[in-house]
């Protein structure tokens, strides 16, 4: 409509059309500014956007990794959200959302705000009484938006939550596919996933309906502004208060103003939606690394491997109970000693290792390493000097060679990797894999025992001062286990002068030859000695040995 009006004005009077062009300098200026803003988008916004999102992902990932390494903080911060999977799925979706905001919304808001301000200044210069109705319409638009915006922010937050929960169920089901298949619970899992998707759909539909209402309100007001502008302008022309040229400008500026207002509030709504969705992302980013990562701590020239637990009591932060997991534990392990820890399930054996690796801090008491309190030592240096093989070693989705080399603080050649694999009795099966040491490891490719052998090779390669084996041979066949027992004992004297080995095993045949066996029950040490000393005592150790011999028979 404004274009038709303008055409009629130009054809009616060429002198007036020239004047129109002259006085429309502001229009041209605004067009240039709008062009510059578009340029800013592709140039200035796109680059920082990419860098920012990359940094954001990296810092978030780092924060997740660090928080996971320090479960105390994780469970304190997210008491209902202990599952790292849900955090990682948020990492993807929330960052994507933030990336969209930075790439699209912000530059559109700035561009339209400049455009709207220019149109408003021109309208006020033209005639302030005529500007008033347009301003009222813009204010109504802003009020409707503020109501809708608040609703949208809430909806966006819920949608992100439900999305993350659905992703989490999917991730969990796929990673536990064997269990799901074995128990025939495919239907239940689909239901569980569907439940979250239903919640998501419910909120999305309501949010879409609200958006529809908002869009209808805008379009109605937009058309109403055009009609009002023509009506009021027409009346003014009839009263000779306005020239046809001014009427054309008036209609154009009105359209610009209302359109800019709509774009600003619409993009702001998208911005609000993203802010709602990204609150958790910012919350995660605000978490500071725990002291153990900030403090440098002491690095000894060489770790000898003397360990001392003095009156150590501990309970997990997520499970504060009256009975502690470790109860005033006192244990001294000499350098170069092979100490085995035995006991019933849940007696606190792995917890000792968790404290030694400083994954948790004791509630009371102190742990000393070569006479120095553990928390005074540099955490990275400490972990570099401890080789750990856990109960269910998870390998990375990298080739076998990289998995063996993983976390090794020094440069190693292929021969070194092969040597470690041979020590762990793994070379033979690795050589039979489709691409040998270059074969990419995935969960189904290797058996539990083979994964353990690779994890053992990794620990051996690090040449640590302290080797911790927590049920590290539980999945191995008897022959491999027997062979490895010899390797572990041999390792004590190989390549370094001292090496302490801590063995945890339910299969008591594994620990029989240890220098000392520590027997635990309910977080306390109840027996200590070597196999020949403990067997005749008739305590828990001899009962466990008897029970195992019976079950074998
Ligand atoms: N992350 C955790 N959060 C809360 N409680 C935990 C956690 N890890 C272990 N526990 C609890 O601490 C107790 C001791 O667990 P721990 O793993 O040390 O026992 P364990 O003797 O090594 O058992 P197993 O021989 O079966 O591995 C158990 O009751 C267990 O439920």
TrEMBL record:
Which Pfam families does the annotation name?
A: ABC_membrane, ABC_tran
InterPro entries reported for this sequence: AAA+_ATPase (IPR003593), ABC1_TM_dom (IPR011527), ABC1_TM_sf (IPR036640), ABC_transporter-like_ATP-bd (IPR003439), P-loop_NTPase (IPR027417), Type_1_exporter (IPR039421)
Locations listed in the record: Membrane
Q: Which residues cross the membrane?
A: 27-47, 130-149
**Recorded GO CC terms:** membrane
Major subcellular site: membrane
Its membrane topology is listed as: Multi-pass membrane protein
Q: Where is the ABC transmembrane type-1 domain?
A: 1-273
PROSITE patterns documented for this protein: ABC_TM1F, ABC_TRANSPORTER_2
Tagged with keyword Ribosomal protein:
no
State any single GO MF term: ABC-type oligopeptide transporter activity
Give start and end of each ABC transporter domain.
307-547
- UniProt keywords, alphabetically: ATP-binding, Membrane, Nucleotide-binding, Transmembrane, Transmembrane helix
**Record flagged with keyword Disulfide bond:** no
* Name of the protein in its database record: ABC transporter B family member 26, chloroplastic isoform X5
UniProt gene name: LOC107892256
